[in-house]
Recover the amino acids of this structure.
């Protein structure tokens, strides 16, 4: 990974589908506004870039693509995202919090390719200051996904989710100094408090 030499901080929120990332991003923003923090919230895959739009079509089953080609698209979208959004905001000294980053490519791409190869694909990406992994059990994650009332996406099947969870466990073991596991099964406000406590302890806010 490329190390940062810029003034801002990059924090990533990771987790399985159904882990509560979107909820926590919203609660984080509320707290950062209250504190008057200089921040930027963003997400991957992107929805406004040309590559991100193509990814969305594939994930929603409106397009077909080879599984390894899909992972390459995620990396391409990430590099574009870095140049258009993340680096400029970090250069302004902001705390950038991203919903998913290269860990998602490794954990979710392990169905199609070797984890080390997927990790190496992201070698030109910035290394985050911290990855917060929202940890939820598979049954709870699937219950939440089912409660959305949405059409099932290709990555939201139990047998696949088990492999994704193992991929995240592998990454947590590989990067223990730059990651922390936070339980996502508590009430949302309690999870948010735990995340803020981690950010404070790490000196990121």
């Amino acid at each position: 990974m490329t190390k940062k030499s810029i003034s801002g901080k990059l924090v990533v929120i990771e987790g399985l589908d159904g882990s509560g990332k979107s909820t926590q991003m919203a609660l984080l923003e509320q707290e950062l506004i209250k504190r008057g923090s200089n921040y930027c919230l963003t997400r991957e895959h992107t929805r406004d870039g040309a590559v991100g739009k193509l990814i969305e079509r594939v994930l929603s089953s409106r397009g077909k693509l080879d599984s390894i080609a899909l992972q390459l698209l995620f990396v391409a979208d990430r590099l574009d995202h870095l140049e258009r959004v993340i680096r400029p905001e970090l250069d302004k000294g902001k705390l950038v919090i991203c919903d998913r980053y290269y860990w998602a490519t490794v954990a979710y791409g392990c169905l199609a390719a070797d984890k080390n190869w997927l990790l190496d694909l992201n070698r030109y990406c910035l290394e985050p200051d911290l990855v917060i992994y929202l940890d939820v059990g598979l049954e709870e994650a699937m219950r939440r996904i089912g409660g959305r009332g949405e059409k099932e996406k290709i990555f939201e099947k139990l047998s696949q989710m088990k492999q994704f969870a193992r991929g995240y466990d592998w990454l947590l073991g590989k990067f223990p100094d730059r990651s922390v596991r936070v339980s996502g099964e508590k009430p949302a406000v309690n999870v948010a408090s735990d995340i803020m406590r981690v950010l404070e302890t790490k000196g990121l806010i």
Remarks:
- The beta strands are 9-15, 39-43, 95-99, 130-135, 179-183.
- Residues 173 and 179 are 9 Å apart (CA to CA).
